[in-house]
Amino acid sequence: MATDRSVVEGPRGLRVLIVEDDPNCRWVLCALMKRMGYECQVATDGQAALRMAEEFAPQVILMDLMMPVLDGWEATRRLKADERMRSIPVLALTGDATPDGESAARRAGCDDFVPKPIIFPDLLERLHRLVTA
Predict the structure, then answer these.
(1) Per-residue exposure over 38-75, b if at least 16 CB sit within 10 Å of its own CB, e if not
(2) Quick check: 116 and 92 in contact, CB under 8 A?
(3) In the prediction, which pLDDT does 111 show?
(4) What is the pTM of this model?
(5) At a CB cut-off of 8 Å and minimum separation 6, what does 102 contact?
(6) Burial class of residue 18, CB neighbours in 10 A (0-12, 13-18, 19+)
(7) Distance CA 133, CA 112 (A)
(8) Which CATH number fits domain 12-65+72-119: 3.30.70.260, 3.40.50.1360, 3.40.50.2300, 3.40.50.2000?
(9) 3-state DSSP helix/strand/coil percent for the chain, to nearest 5?
(10) Ranges under pLDDT 50 in the chain
(11) Gap between the Cα atoms of 109 and 80, Å rounded
């Protein structure tokens, strides 16, 4: 897991909500965020993500798209429809690395897209771009 700070330095104390149903992926993402000095909360499905977004007030959301209960596409649509949360950047995480997959994520309201398996320097670069835009 490459995290050379000179390449991926971002704002300290950033609040990141990770929405991911896979426990291993969730753990790795949260560990990476904490290593970067970020505050991290997790949700295991889109329904929980909507609650956590209100309670935690994240500055960015890493959203898996294929999850049980409420998928990431619908959770993102609901976040973007809510006036209080629409400005929170959503970075889609998905195994569908096709142009159609990226297009579907953007149509749902995702601000950027990272295919799985995740390349961590790429994820951090995109995350930092979203929060400093």
Answers:
(1) bebbbbbbbbbbbebbeebebbbbbbbbebeebbbbbb
(2) no
(3) 98
(4) 0.91
(5) 92, 113, 115
(6) buried
(7) 12
(8) 3.40.50.2300
(9) 45, 20, 35
(10) 1-7
(11) 7
